[in-house]
Automatic annotation (TrEMBL):
Its main location: cytoplasm. Belongs to the KdsB family. SUPFAM superfamilies: Nucleotide-diphospho-sugar transferases. Pathway: Nucleotide-sugar biosynthesis; CMP-3-deoxy-D-manno-octulosonate biosynthesis; CMP-3-deoxy-D-manno-octulosonate from 3-deoxy-D-manno-octulosonate and CTP: step 1/1. This is 3-deoxy-manno-octulosonate cytidylyltransferase. Keywords: Cytoplasm, Lipopolysaccharide biosynthesis, Nucleotidyltransferase, Transferase. GO terms for molecular function: nucleotidyltransferase activity.
Length: 251
């Protein structure tokens, strides 16, 4: 199925929960003849840098469905608070893995080029964690707390992530911010070296993380560097039933 990655064994994991406060059961919704989780799985398969792609779930319905279309799936504990924790459990079954990519299970149009960009970041041996940032923001994005913004340093490592507009243009009218500063919007795909992932899942929540409700702030608080790769490729995710129509129009 995949071209063997001789450089480093790369494992793609798609965490998928049935329960969701805003949209229960969304991994199994029908999107023009295929479930959302199947579209994510098949999109991830198109990235030839993966040695394996696995769905990680705590729900028997999702497990049975992935099995029915021939996908690889693993049942995980129902106590995990994040996709990162779920990825950490799956990693325990793949001791040969050098790199883990956490693929969002609610992005049915996931683009293999995004995944390749993320994996290629680890050609730099100093990279521990990598994620993506998009420079194409709107004024609405800046003020939307569900659109996460980030700031990076000159080494392309993240300084901070926030639901607020960062940085704040103290001397510039807000309508001019986008034309004056290269703002970045976070795209929630992550990749980790295996040893780093094992360490991350042992960390206690940090106050910054709890305040912003952003897990990656736990990693920054504890001194981990997060490499930010810029891309203009972005695909819509499905957080609520209202998002489905957007995706259907794009299929």
């Amino acid at each position: 199925m995949f071209e063997k990655n001789e450089r480093m064994y790369t494992l793609g994991i798609i965490p998928a929960r049935y329960g969701s406060s805003r949209f229960p059961g969304k991994p199994l919704i029908d999107l023009k003849g295929k479930s959302m989780i199947r579209r994510v799985y098949e999109g991830a398969e198109k990235c030839t840098l993966f040695n394996e792609v696995v769905v990680a779930t705590d729900d028997q319905r999702i497990y049975d469905h992935v099995t029915s279309f021939g996908g690889k799936v693993m049942m995980t504990a129902d106590v995990h608070q994040s996709g990162t924790d779920r990825c950490g459990e799956v990693l325990g079954h793949f001791p040969q893995a050098d790199l883990v990519v956490n693929i969002q299970g609610d992005e049915p149009l996931v683009d293999a080029r995004q995944l390749e960009l993320l994996i290629r970041a680890f050609d730099d041996n100093s990279v521990q964690i990598a994620t993506l940032g998009n420079p194409n923001l709107t004024h609405e994005d800046l003020n939307n707390p569900n659109r996460i913004k980030l700031v990076k340093n000159k080494a392309d490592n993240a300084l901070y992530f926030s639901r607020s507009a960062i940085p704040f243009g103290a001397k510039v009218p807000q309508e001019e911010w986008l034309s004056k500063f290269p703002y970045l919007r976070h795209i929630g795909l992550y990749a980790y070296r295996s040893q780093t992932l094992k360490e991350l899942i042992q960390l206690a929540p940090a106050d910054l993380e709890l305040w912003e409700s952003l897990e990656q702030l736990r990693w920054l608080y504890n001194g981990y560097a997060i490499r930010v790769v810029e891309t203009e490729i972005e695909t819509p995710n499905i957080d609520s039933p209202e998002d489905v129509e957007t995706v259907l129009r794009m299929l």
